[in-house]
Amino acid sequence: MLVGLLLDVEDTAVTRQTAEALARVGTVAAVRLIALAVAEADGNQADWLQTGVHDALVGPDGVPGVAAACGKLTRDQEEAVRRGAAELLAWTDDTRC
Description:
Blueprint: H1 2-6, H2 12-25, H3 28-40, H4 43-57, H5 65-73, H6 79-94
Helix pairs in contact: 2-3, 2-4, 3-5, 3-6, 5-6
């Protein structure tokens, strides 16, 4: 169900807000859902997923656990999760100063 919200074709605000909320949770399970969505997303959806994740990572309340969760997920049994986690990891690198 959450992956469906992350890939909502009708409402990009839902995509962005769900990605941000899951990234703020920052657990491996939450980040895994984002990774699955990233692996299935079209270009527009991926942009909104990235924006949501970026919103969670920047600023004084940024969530440091996302990169660590991505690192674990790059070794997941499911290829789509590994691919999505690698993309997410690149996004986390883009937010570092």
